[in-house]
């Protein structure tokens, strides 16, 4: 206890000899304007919080590493991609992974029924690669222009300041593409037991590009070695009564005791074309690629083994963007991915500042240190190394500065032609089919929880929304719609008599997919091998 402590200073480095009192005129007199130490201290305190994320505000994170197997399934990874992070073995790439809920604010409970964010920053030898997704492998909408409306509908009412079920279902009832995600979220999968025992997914469709410039469509997934566990509404309420941050605590304590969570990183691969044989567009992020046709192929392992030293400096200031890709991983024409690529990085510039990439949590590793001609803006605290001549902050130049990197021997080129316009996908059959399949492949307890949750919500909605929602669910699976109608006290025949939505194609159930009746002894075999809380 006698060791010398560091001296307290101001942010200017001035030693502080009295940190207990303002400068004032006498013991009881007024304070003076020259209280520089106090003014510096309190004005910094007033600005300690940056704007919270509009979505994904509640979250926690951890450091770790990723190591590739060097293979994708039974093939060398280099067959599909030239990205070193995916095809070099024996290299541990540092990662930071931020988990989150979506709709609630920074202090909202982690037992909320909500998708969970799963955002990873890989600090590769070729620079950062950000993979920003969630735990459910799909999303509510397939066109980014609808994103602000969706979030507004799911956020609190601007008048009552409450999340109102009628707002959620009003949007959903007019957007059939949401039915698949709604079926997941309103089931127990909408409340993961914690962050360690849940899946992760990039959700959007990307492309892998190899040395020959050949591309394949790809989906990225993370399967937890700990297994998957979800909560019923009753279990979540019991936890929330005791702890609104149970998932943050669970992750922190597991890492502190050396029980490092681990995921197997897998991909699904598809040839880079339109695939007219499918009932859905593979670029549609509201759909899952069937795993019997496009199996999960192991790529590597992801391990979290270190908690942040400071939550604000690392977790809150961590900034991710879907446009942050490395060579060998490329964009597809997924309309949500295209829109997210602008929005995510733009959000970080507003929230953290234009120089957010200078922060240690966001900066690339030393081997891939940034060298740019970008200068200045708020909070610039160093200048990117600009080569041999510090006067040159432009390119090209014969006087020094920076030069372009060598181009790949065979780069990827995509042929694009067509009429410019506003288009919606015409392949909408799976808007209902995949939701119905999900209903039938849930276990009995999951199905019971799902219909109970939706039925309870619809009791709080106007009749017009109730009828349209039951109409949608009945077209997904007749038993699905019938059970929800019974719970909510909705006239099923009146709902079934509704016409299709204006401007939307009439839904069609795949009659080769039998509807599930609650009187059957067994539902069809599950697609997901998971351990649910029962």
From TrEMBL:
Annotated spans, Disordered: 495-534
Superkingdom: Bacteria
Keywords carried by this UniProt record: Heme, Hydrogen peroxide, Iron, Metal-binding, Oxidoreductase, Peroxidase
Ranges for domain Catalase core: 9-403
Enzyme class: oxidoreductase
Cofactor annotation: heme
EC numbers: 1.11.1.6
Start-end of Basic and acidic residues biased regions: 523-534
Function: Decomposes hydrogen peroxide into water and oxygen; serves to protect cells from the toxic effects of hydrogen peroxide.
PANTHER family according to UniProt: CATALASE, CATALASE-2
Protein family membership: Belongs to the catalase family.
The protein's name in its UniProt record: Catalase
């Amino acid at each position: 206890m006698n060791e010398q402590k560091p001296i307290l200073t101001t942010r200017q480095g001035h030693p502080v000899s009295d940190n207990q009192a303002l400068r004032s005129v006498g013991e009881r007199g007024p304070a003076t304007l020259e209280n520089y130490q106090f003014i510096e201290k309190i004005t910094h305190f007033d600005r300690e919080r940056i704007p919270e994320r509009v979505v994904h505000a509640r979250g926690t994170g951890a450091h770790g590493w990723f190591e590739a197997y060097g293979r994708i399934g039974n093939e060398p990874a280099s067959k599909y991609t030239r990205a070193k992070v995916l095809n070099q073995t024996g290299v541990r790439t540092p990662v930071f992974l931020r988990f989150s809920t979506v709709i609630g604010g920074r202090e909202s409970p982690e037992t909320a029924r909500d998708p969970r964010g799963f955002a990873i920053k890989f600090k590769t030898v070729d620079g950062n690669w950000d993979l920003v997704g969630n735990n459910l492998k799909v999303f509510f909408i397939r066109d980014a222009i609808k994103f602000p409306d969706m979030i507004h509908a799911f956020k609190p009412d601007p008048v009552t300041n409450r999340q109102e079920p009628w707002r959620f279902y009003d949007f959903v009832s007019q957007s059939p593409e949401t039915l698949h995600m709604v079926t997941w979220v309103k089931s127990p999968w909408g409340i993961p037991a914690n962050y360690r025992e849940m899946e992760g997914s990039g959700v959007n469709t990307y492309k892998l590009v190899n040395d020959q410039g050949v591309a394949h469509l790809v989906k990225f997934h993370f399967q937890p070695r700990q297994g998957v566990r979800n909560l019923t509404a009753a279990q979540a309420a019991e936890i929330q009564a005791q702890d609104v941050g149970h998932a943050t605590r669970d992750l922190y304590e597991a890492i502190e005791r050396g029980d490092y969570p681990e995921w197997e990183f897998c991909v699904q691969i598809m040839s880079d074309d339109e695939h007219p044989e499918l009932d859905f567009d593979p670029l549609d992020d509201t759909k899952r690629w069937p795993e019997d046709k496009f199996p999960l192929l192991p790529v590597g392992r992801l391990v979290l083994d270190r908690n942040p030293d400071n939550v604000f400096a690392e977790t809150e200031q961590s900034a991710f963007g879907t446009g942050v890709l490395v060579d060998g991983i490329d964009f597809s024409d997924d309309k949500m991915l295209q829109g997210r690529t602008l929005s995510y990085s733009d959000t970080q510039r507003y929230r953290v500042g234009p120089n957010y990439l200078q922060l240690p949590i966001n900066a690339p590793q030393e081997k891939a240190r940034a060298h740019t001609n970008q200068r200045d803006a708020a909070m610039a605290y160093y200048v990117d190394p600009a080569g041999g001549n510090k006067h040159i902050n432009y390119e090209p130049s014969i006087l020094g500065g920076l030069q372009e990197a060598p181009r790949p021997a065979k780069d990827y080129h995509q042929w694009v032609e067509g009429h410019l316009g506003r288009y919606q996908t015409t392949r909408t059959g799976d808007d209902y089919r995949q939701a119905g399949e999900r209903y039938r492949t849930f276990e009995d307890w999951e199905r019971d929880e799902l219909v109970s949750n939706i039925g309870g919500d619809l009791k709080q909605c106007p009749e017009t929304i109730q009828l349209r929602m039951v109409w949608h669910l009945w077209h997904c699976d007749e038993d699905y719609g019938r059970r929800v109608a019974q719970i909510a006290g909705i006239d099923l025949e009146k709902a079934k008599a509704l016409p299709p939505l204006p401007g939307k194609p009439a839904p069609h159930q795949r009659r080769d997919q039998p509807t599930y009746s609650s009187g059957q002894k067994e539902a069809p075999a599950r697609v997901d091998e998971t351990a649910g809380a029962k």
